[in-house]
Amino acid sequence: MRSRKYSRAEQVPLVWDGPGLVAGVDEAGRGPLAGPVVAAAVILDDLNPVRGLADSKKLSPRRREALYDEIMAKALCCSIAEASVAEIDTLNILQATLLAMQRAVQGLRLKPAKVLVDGNRLPRLDVLAEAIVKGDDKVPAISAASILAKVHRDRWCARYDEQFPQVRVCRPQGLRHGGASGGPARARCMPGAPPLVFAGRGGADMSAAPVLITSRDNPFIKSLRRLAQDSVAYRKQGQVWLEGDHLCRAALERGLKPATAVFSESFWSHPSVDWSSVAIKNIVIPDRLFAEVSGLESPAPMGFLIELPLGHTVQPDVPTVVLDRVQDAGNVGSILRSAGAFGFRQVVALKGTAALWSPKVLRAGMGAHFGLHLIEGVEAGALDALSVPLVVTSSHQGEFLHERTPPFPCAWVMGHEGQGVCAEVAAKAACSVRIAQPGGEESLNVAAAAAICLHASAAAWASRR
Fold first, then answer.
1. Quick one: pLDDT at residue 309?
2. CA distance readout (Å), 219 to 66, 114, 224, 419
3. Distance from C-alpha of 383 to C-alpha of 321, rounded to nearest angstrom
């Protein structure tokens, strides 16, 4: 059902649910006698749900504030808009409410395929819309919009309560009280609203404008801290934290679109490069909080959150590096970097190898991850899918690398720093190779050995072209 101009909606469900984004819309401030009426529109992310959503009126102020921050951090996009006191006086409160809703939907950075509105009236929209009575208690996206609108207006009231204590707009939030100076006839007509972040006649795009988070107990901050400091948290959360402009640039150059960009306050205020439009959502946090979250001794002032790139299937005929229980994160990252440099496009990490997307491996890889097909946590049997020959490295047996021409494409196997390649994997190899060491050292660092072997394959391939 398409909306008519501020029409009363039929209370029947839409007969179909087409594909696309769904936005929830609700208002706050229609009943109170003071200040503007506020509307919010929210498109939630199904892959990053917000727990505990409900009608904002049924939540405590503290719980609303916590959910407000979580919605802002997790939603695909949000928008908050107002209709002014003057517009309320001109149009009436119903029409002004519908106008604020219209502005909120228009302020969304992403265009929804369908809009669900709390109540029994619809604003004029250019997309499919449905009104749902008590929708703020039934539909999560409407509940989220209800919370944003309520908290936004409560904050407006709190500011006015400080400036005009005789009006007492905060007891409760903007509702009429007998002590209000001038009585109900004057309660709406207070001075113009002070400037508020994310408020405005045309709506505000929460995804383009930065979201400021200051609490270390915010759910987004807790999640970010785990990703930055726990080497395997990305597996559970399905996201990867890229800290520093070098990794972020490398991701962008490979065509990755970050879900969220996070900046320190000082960096956001004086950026050397405009990063504001590269991510779906921008979040700004205080410098001290960024330092607490960071896993670095010298924290970078920015980072990206990206969805975890999943490699499920071994590609059979691709030049490959196999890591057999290589445990040092620096070694793993360095090998990934060499793989990317010498034309090996797949890395298969067997169980026992350092987590490929851990912060330390990412930093050592210097951006190589984004050009590689990465598979991790598999058993040795997964190597049977490879059609290219396996070449295992050893410190004490096999042909000398400089005495033979290594195959290309092939799959080089790099073993555990102390134990080398396991017997099960060695049995699958077409040949075994060692590197001459005339200086007499017992063995080479595995990352150094990998660089030598991969370069030898790439050089032999280049000479045959």
1. 82
2. 8, 28, 9, 42
3. 11
Tokens 């265009």 label which residue? 111
| 134-170 confidence digits (pLDDT tens) | 999 999 999 999 999 999 888 877 766 665 555 554 5
> CB-side exposure of 336: number of CA atoms within 13 Å?
33
pLDDT digits (tens, 9 = 90+) for 72-121: 888 888 999 988 888 888 888 899 999 999 999 998 888 899 999 999 99
Q: How far is CA 264 from the centre of its chain?
A: 16
CA 420 → CA 327, 328, 390, 449, distances in Å?
Answer: 11, 13, 15, 12
Give the residue from 257, 245, 377 showing the smallest Cα distance to 307.
257
CA distance 316 to 127: 46
Cβ neighbours, 10 Å, residue 119? 22
Tally of residues, the chain: 465
DSSP conformation class of 217: T
**C-beta separation of 166 from 66 below 8 A:** no
Q: Determine the longest span between alpha carbons in the chain, in angstroms.
A: 98
The C-alpha angle with vertex 44 and arms to 77 and 108, in degrees rounded to 5, equals 30
Residue 136: phi, psi to the nearest 5? -70, -10
d(CA 288, CA 216): 10
| C-alpha to C-alpha distance for 403 and 225, rounded to whole angstroms | 50
Strands 399-400 and 431-434: parallel
Residue 291 has pLDDT above 90, yes or no: yes
What pLDDT sits at residue 196? 30
Dist. CA 292–CA 262, nearest whole Å: 14
128 strand-pairing partners:
2, 114
Label residue 109 exposed, middle or buried (CB < 10 Å: 0-12, 13-18, 19+): middle
